[in-house]
UniProtKB/TrEMBL annotation:
<keyword id="KW-0966">Cell projection</keyword>
<keyword id="KW-0963">Cytoplasm</keyword>
<feature type="domain" description="MSP">
    <location>
        <begin position="1"/>
        <end position="76"/>
    </location>
</feature>
<dbReference type="GO" id="GO:0031143">
    <property type="term" value="C:pseudopodium"/>
</dbReference>
<comment type="function">
    <text>Central component in molecular interactions underlying sperm crawling. Forms an extensive filament system that extends from sperm villipoda, along the leading edge of the pseudopod.</text>
</comment>
<dbReference type="InterPro" id="IPR000535">
    <property type="entry name" value="MSP_dom"/>
</dbReference>
<dbReference type="InterPro" id="IPR013783">
    <property type="entry name" value="Ig-like_fold"/>
</dbReference>
<dbReference type="InterPro" id="IPR008962">
    <property type="entry name" value="PapD-like_sf"/>
</dbReference>
<protein>
    <recommendedName>
        <fullName>MSP domain-containing protein</fullName>
    </recommendedName>
</protein>
<dbReference type="InterPro" id="IPR051155">
    <property type="entry name" value="Nematode_MSP"/>
</dbReference>
<keyword id="KW-0206">Cytoskeleton</keyword>
<dbReference type="Pfam" id="PF00635">
    <property type="entry name" value="Motile_Sperm"/>
</dbReference>
<dbReference type="GO" id="GO:0005856">
    <property type="term" value="C:cytoskeleton"/>
</dbReference>
Length: 77
């Protein structure tokens, strides 16, 4: 699904740090497309000890635990 975007798409947070995410949606023909399974998936993992505060995709490909939260999208036509 390409109609949804999130900014920033990735990042690193310190403990207890928060961030606001902007979610955008491209125009589409609501009611003519199946939107029942539209969702945003947030994945997170702990960074390795001593890691710099720069996002690295390989943190999600190792042996560490990756957590996921699926957020269903409800459109307001």
């Amino acid at each position: 699904m390409k109609r949804l975007g999130v900014d920033p798409p990735c990042g690193v947070l310190d403990p207890k740090e928060a961030v606001l995410l902007a979610v955008s949606c491209d125009a589409f023909a609501y009611g003519q497309e199946d939107t029942n399974n539209d969702r945003i998936t947030v994945e997170w993992t702990n960074t390795p000890d001593g890691a710099a505060k720069q996002f690295r995709r390989e943190w999600f490909q190792g042996d560490g635990m990756v957590r996921r939260k699926n957020l269903p999208i409800e459109y307001n036509p």
